[in-house]
Each structure stands twice: as structure tokens, then as C-alpha cells.
Specification:
By secondary structure, the chain is mainly alpha-helical. About 70% of the residues lie in helices and about 0% in strands.
């Protein structure tokens, strides 16, 4: 069984941009802990990734 992964560069850039914005904001506010940041990043990725 072979897995094929399709990568949409536009979505990858969008995810990266969202993560950078959250990280920049968190560096200023220190609102989220590391584990909370990981949770937020997971939410962003899961919201954009499609499983076929």
C-alpha cells in the first residue's frame, strides 16, 4: 500500500503566515504557554488539511 501526499503550496504558505502571526502576537503578550501554542498550531493545521 503506497501513500500519496498532495501538497498545495498556497495552503502551506497560508498556514505558515497564520502561525507566524500568532507567534508574533504571543511574543508581545505572553498570553499563551508553549503547550497552548502547540494546540493553536494543531488547530490551524487540522483546519486546512484534507485527508483523502
Amino acid at each position: 500500500m503506497e501513500s500519496v501526499i498532495k501538497i498545495d503550496e498556497k495552503i502551506v504558505k497560508q498556514i505558515a503566515k497564520q502561525i507566524v502571526m500568532i507567534e508574533k502576537n504571543n511574543l508581545k503578550t505572553k498570553e499563551l504557554s508553549d503547550s497552548q501554542m502547540i494546540t493553536e498550531i494543531k488547530k490551524i493545521i487540522e483546519g486546512e488539511v484534507e485527508v483523502e
